[in-house]
Amino acid sequence: MDSTNTILSVGIDIGTSTTQVIFSRIAMENTAGYFSIPKVSIVDKEVVYRSGIYTTPLLDRSRIDGDRVRDIVAAEFQKAGFTPADTGTGAVIITGESARKENSALVLEKLSGFAGEFVVSTAGPDLEAIIAGKGSGAQQYSEEMCCTAVNLDIGGGTTNLVLFDCGRTVGKGCLDIGGRLIRLEPDYTVTYLSPAAALVAESRGVPLREGERASLADLKEVCRGMAQLLEECLGLSPPSPLLRRVQTPGSSWLDLAGQKPVRAIFFSGGVADGVYRGLAGGDDPIPYGDIGLLLGEAIREGRLCTAFRLEKGKETIRATVVGAGSYTTTLSGSTITYTDPGVFPLKNIPVLKLSQEEQESAFRGEAGPVAERVKWFLSQSDSGAVVIALEGEGDPSYPRLKALAGALGQAAGVLPAGAPLLLVVERDIAKALGQAAAGVLAGGRPVVSLDSIHVEQNDYIDMGRPLMDGLVVPVVVKTLIFG
């Protein structure tokens, strides 16, 4: 058996302002000794191709031009020298205001031919925050320095915030604050004013209206208001009622102020360059016809850059696409079971996480509570499959493990005919559990049982084809599909 394996990953980010594509190589290796249980880990990630940065093509304010996006991606595949068949994992992610366009799902369909066998399509704001924080280097910094670090990914339509503590995600969320929320002609005539920007302008007493000229002083005042809202998120001032009103639909509430004190702050996204570089005296304040540089300057002059240690990450404008291409994929543990490799890949499977009480009843061999929960869950979901997730126990006795398998096997009877029994366990008991469950299932229903994966209720999971001679399964855990 080979000890190493490399797969090609593609990242496609369709944002409010820009669209980008990257290709990365992800190396995996069996790091266990000869006489140990195999342990496969991702040991290296390398970006091998970066596309140009394109303006996201739109048909109008509410629709993305899916055909032009597809042409961009096709051209970048050709320039990179790859075909869709070469890709093994990665992510297509529609972010910011683009995620709320009417035809987001249609755009993803148009890109399906470039997705390879296993590429996640997602646009949840919370997941975007985590991906950008990994792509910028904030997560790695937090892990290596064993400290708290926050990343603010400020794009055209939203600001995604994520707080890491020693590398672990402890807070995340999203606000409708971005550089393209006010768009202007060269003479400062407002051509677009987003609802969130209008709220901030009103709160600062600034009379902005579409079709009317704005003053530079008024635009700066609105940007200071946006910067203040970001400061409120990190506990530098009490939260105002406006903070809740500009929260992005579908995101978690930003209770970052209640976490550990932040040590370091990172900025990524298109506005980040304005934060790090600032505006020189002779610079055009609106070179892109928006408030992006003015917002960056307001943040630079505010308290965010003085209250915390300011760090510049490895990526700024490319943080999300690098994160999507290099950091979305994790690996299952090596003690796993799947009875039919033909069930892979599996995409967008909703997660039903058992409570401690439900798990304990299943360990006692009681199938009823789990079966009822699965039946209810399927009735609330458009999916014909479900991942049953549980924490598990570190070293359960054989009778308890057998009882658990029996209960889960019986509960699988409420699944649609032919649907696999999909189990995800945090502890290393998936192999024995899956084998025991397969023994009690009737009708040859497939079983997939993976360990070393942490998920929460309302997550979604993608599972790719097994790698490393079947030792591991690549997995993407998605916080939200569309926010």
User: How would you state the average pLDDT, rounded?
Assistant: 86
Within the largest sheet, what's the order of strands? 16-23-22-18-19-20-21-17
Strand content: 25-35%
**Helix count from the secondary structure assignment:** 15
What gyration radius follows from the Cα positions, in whole Å? 24 Å
Shape descriptor? elongated
Low-pLDDT parts are none
Helix and strand content put the structural class at alpha/beta
Helix content: 25-40%
What order do the helices and strands come in, and which of them pair?
Layout: E1 4-14, E2 18-30, E3 40-50, E4 54-55, E5 58-60, E6 63-64, H1 66-80, E7 87-94, H2 104-110, E8 120-122, H3 125-136, H4 138-145, E9 148-154, E10 159-165, E11 168-175, E12 182-184, E13 190-193, H5 195-203, H6 216-233, H7 241-245, E14 264-268, H8 272-277, H9 292-301, H10 304-307, E15 309-310, H11 319-326, E16 330-331, E17 337-338, E18 346-353, H12 356-363, H13 368-380, E19 387-390, H14 398-411, E20 421-425, H15 430-440, E21 447-451, E22 460-463, E23 474-478
Parallel strand pairs: 1-7, 7-8, 9-14, 14-15, 18-19, 19-20, 20-21
Antiparallel strand pairs: 1-2, 2-3, 2-4, 5-6, 9-10, 10-11, 12-13, 16-23, 17-21, 18-22, 22-23
Helix pairs in contact: 1-2, 3-11, 5-6, 6-9, 12-14, 13-14, 14-15
Outline the structure in words.
By secondary structure, the protein is an alpha/beta fold. The chain has 15 helices and 23 strands. It has helices at residues 66-80, 104-110, 125-136, 138-145, 195-203, 216-233, 241-245, 272-277, 292-301, 304-307, 319-326, 356-363, 368-380, 398-411, 430-440, and strands at residues 4-14, 18-30, 40-50, 54-55, 58-60, 63-64, 87-94, 120-122, 148-154, 159-165, 168-175, 182-184, 190-193, 264-268, 309-310, 330-331, 337-338, 346-353, 387-390, 421-425, 447-451, 460-463, 474-478. The strands form five sheets. The protein has an eight-stranded mixed β-sheet, covered by helices on one side. Strand 9 and strand 10 (159-165) form a beta hairpin. It starts with a strand and ends in a 5-residue tail after the last strand. The relative contact order is 0.14. The mean pLDDT is 86.
